[in-house]
Amino acid sequence: MNVMVCNKFKELLKGLNIEVIKSLEGVYNVDEIIDTFTNFYFDKMILDITSIRDYQNVDNLQKLAMNLNMENVILLLDDNPETDNAAFISKLISLGIYNFTKNINGINYLLVHPHTLKDVVNIHNIQELDNQINQTNTPATMQNSFIPSDVGPTLSNNSGGGKLRIIGFKNVTNHAGATSLIYMLKKTLQNSRIVNAIEINKVDFLYFNDKDMASSNTQDVLKEIMKRQANCDVILLDLNDYEDLEICTDVIYLIEPSTIMINKMLRKNKGILESLRDKKVVLNKCVLNSEDVATFEYETKLKVFAAIPALDDRQEKIESLIKFASKIGL
After folding, report:
1. Can you give the pLDDT at residue 124?
2. What is the DSSP string of 266-302?
3. What digits encode the pLDDT tens for the residues 218-236?
4. pLDDT at residue 125, as a whole number
């Protein structure tokens, strides 16, 4: 069942075809709203932002976000210049408020398709947000409802005016070397790019003693990306067991082409080769010559994107990684 708190938009909200078990009308201090609904079970709350006294003060919204489960709250925004702007929307996202809109169509959409951070991370960019909203491809009935497109390659990069590149690395064979490869590639790129690296669900980066290499987890990785997107050209992701590959611009699949590693891979997943068709497959820690690589391609029916030999991670300049970086457009 649903609850509703309305003020300026009460007539608009009457057009919603939903069951409401409790409603408030008027302007309330944020503490009053919290006290009323903290221990009150509801499926969704439709909250008219003008019902919150001094809602322009983000501290009030922060208090609301700290005391109510904002996953179940749909915030109906108004046209106040203080809040109808990219900076305010970005603040909402920073507070964990992801479900917001400006019309009935947006509310109906969010009732069925509630947003998570992944859905709004691509508009958590103050300089780019207005352009993204104006250029949206959503139908006319959804205009101004702040329903963004998917995350991933659309993430914006403030520092260079281009697009942030998020390159994911995934070990296909066990211990294929993603962690060390990312470390060396970061060193290779950092003279010409602003590069950060993030590993997911592990803490191996800790041992590199590099402030620009962070460890995260499945729940927080998008927040870590968001913190860096304004100042980075490239983020290198050690994906490990993380499966939501849509956050990446490109994904590199690493295979160590030794007999034992290949056989272990096939024993574990007989269909793995078929799933790698048309993917960027890289042979890492590779001791094969060009003829052997060609044989590998013939036997596996895979197209090898690159072959990287075993490398010394103490070297500052590694020619094979310079070539690899060029091949992936970095």
Report:
1. 60
2. HHH-TTHHHHTTTSEEEE-S----HHHHHHHHHHHT-
3. 888 888 888 887 788 899 9
4. 52
From the centroid of its chain, how far is CA 321? 27
Structure tokens given for 101: 């809109």
CA distances from 106 to 113, 114, 182, 277 (A): 10, 10, 41, 39
Are the C-beta atoms of residues 106 and 145 closer than 8 Å to each other? yes
pTM, 2 dp: 0.59
Q: Which of 186, 178, 200 minimizes the C-alpha distance to 244?
A: 200
Report yes or no: 169 and 240 within 8 Å, Cβ to Cβ: no
Q: How many CB atoms lie under 10 A from the CB of residue 190? A: 14
Q: Is 191 exposed, middle or buried (0-12, 13-18, 19+ CB in 10 A)?
A: exposed
- Token pair 């056989």 is found at 263
What residue ranges of the chain have pLDDT lower than 70?
122, 124-163
On whether the CB atoms of residues 13 and 48 are closer than 8 A, the answer is: yes
- Per-residue pLDDT at 46: 95
CA distances to 19, 83, 110, 121, 183 from 101, in Å: 20, 12, 9, 16, 41
Tens of pLDDT, residue by residue over 56-86, are 988 899 889 888 888 899 999 998 888 888 8
